Amino acid sequence: MDGTLIDSLPDLANSARYLMQSYQLPSVTDQDVRLMIGDGIKVLVERLLAHAGNAGSKIDIQEATDRFIAYYVKHSTDYSRPFEGAVQAMEEFKKRGWKIALCTNKITSAAKLILEQLKIDHFFDAVGGGDLFADKKPHACHLEGIMKMLNADPAKTVMVGDHINDILVAKNAKVAGSVYAAWGYGPAEIGKQATLVANTLLELPNVAENVMSK
């Protein structure tokens, strides 16, 4: 979701700065936060507190996570927008008969709310957050659970993402393959571990179909 479908960094970074300010901790930049996201909100908060050093270590992680979520839910679409070409790509997938699911380490309710507020929720046949299953990406059960929701065949499933967890969950769940989203937040080296690389969202439908033919 973050860094693949939606450019959510501005709102995540603003929420991070709110959290740090609320505890009188040193602020963080957008780039700082960019390097921390991808493993869910709680891990992001843990990394933010660790970034603050000794002062951050004295703060209760769960309380800080709850504080972050309370603020983020209210501001998650202040500046976040679908990446350029995202809507066109999903329209093309639908024309070709693909089912689209969201496999995110975000809380499911928060992910659904963002999709609704950005008016792209109608593209999705299933949404599965990190709270919905026994474990989350890169654990196989996350993607496997979403495939069960759709009665999807792993051999006909392609995972798309910009984070190493996206590539690993595809391997762990033994799906057809993975596509590294080169427009996202993750380092380019991740693309070496994916089945194929898509440089733009507009080329993604063709790249995904090429994964199926490998």
From TrEMBL:
- Pathways involved: Organic acid metabolism; glycolate biosynthesis; glycolate from 2-phosphoglycolate: step 1/1
Give the domain of life.
Answer: Bacteria
Q: Which Gene3D superfamilies match?
A: HAD superfamily/HAD-like, Putative phosphatase, domain 2
Q: Which GO terms describe its molecular function?
A: phosphoglycolate phosphatase activity
CC terms in the record's Gene Ontology section: cytosol
Q: Which reaction does it catalyse?
A: 2-phosphoglycolate + H2O = glycolate + phosphate
Q: Which Pfam families match?
A: HAD_2
Question: What biological processes does GO assign it?
Answer: DNA repair
Parts of the chain that traverse the membrane? none
Which enzyme type, at the first EC level?
hydrolase
Q: What is its EC number?
A: 3.1.3.18
Sequence similarity: Belongs to the HAD-like hydrolase superfamily. CbbY/CbbZ/Gph/YieH family.
For this entry, the protein name equals: phosphoglycolate phosphatase
Give the source lineage, highest ranks first: Bacteria, Pseudomonadati, Pseudomonadota, Alphaproteobacteria, Acetobacterales
